[in-house]
């Protein structure tokens, strides 16, 4: 009997343990379900930075902010991210405290934005609307205006606006009416094709712009007045478009523009008109232009402040004029020059003052290791400017193919003695008999040839007078000649 009681007690204990485990598992699953169903979560890196993460939650609407958001300190930097959801309509966002606020709606399905959508967030400084389905008709000034005060709508603090990878053909001319602090505008990867007058007016109205991205917009020209008034513009990207020449309109921002990216355009040549007026440009990138085959004289002359030049990955670029940097050599500013992955085989020794460079890239070309290249690499010190592991190879002649260009020693290259000897005065004693004989023979030959030439000329004159020359016809006045009276 006792044994049976012990067995029953053991079974009861096991049942109790199983019940406790089931309860704990149920509570854990419930907690996990709550976490997964929560639309957003809050994290902080320090007292001044807070992130409200609403990304990858399969959201198709904008949820209310968590209650903890009310505890944000006034000067805190707040990042709100709705990345990779299914939101199609951006409705008006609730008030969000914080000193500087950034919001990302990247990679959603946005096709509509309600007016006053960001009116409650006056301290919004960064807004990412990229990779959506936004058209130009959706973008209106009303979506960026602040609260209505004193019979007018106030501005918001927006500094950066990313509209890349959407379906924008044109911008409303008053789009930036309530964003006077806008300094960075990204319009890349939109089917703009033509910068019409309303789009130009919209861009020109953002007078504090410093960065403008127009890459992959299929534009081929820029109106001459497009950048008029953008006196603070420092960086522009015109890559992956249809330009056959560098737009002349860039000269309007020549006193402020510092960084120009001009990759993958169907240009054929660069010349002395390409960068005219860009006197403040610090860094220039002209790469991946498959049709570019020539850089002509004085191309870079206007770039009086240039420090970094990326002229690389142009697979048909075969020629750079030795005067391409004409006018810059006396006031040389370039520190980094990258000529990698072109179709170059030779460079002129006087192309640039090679010893003044800090970094030089020349890999991926078909270098002919001749006297000029040896002079550039050794005598002028260009070989010391290559980065570690980026030393170019010789492609020709065959006996040097595959050699590092820093290892070449071209034995047939002449070396000239630059020392001078004292000039001696002429003395007759220095003449040798053969010199005198050759001199007499030379003089006699010249005299004989002259005399013979004279006789030939005289004989020709005599023949001309006797047999060839016609006598003139004489006319007689009958009234005055007495023999006919």
UniProtKB/TrEMBL annotation:
Listed name of the protein: Uncharacterized protein
Signal peptide as annotated in the record: 1-30
Source organism superkingdom: Eukaryota
PROSITE patterns assigned: LRR, PROKAR_LIPOPROTEIN
Membrane-spanning ranges: 436-457
Ranges in a coiled coil: none
Keywords: Leucine-rich repeat, Membrane, Repeat, Signal, Transmembrane, Transmembrane helix
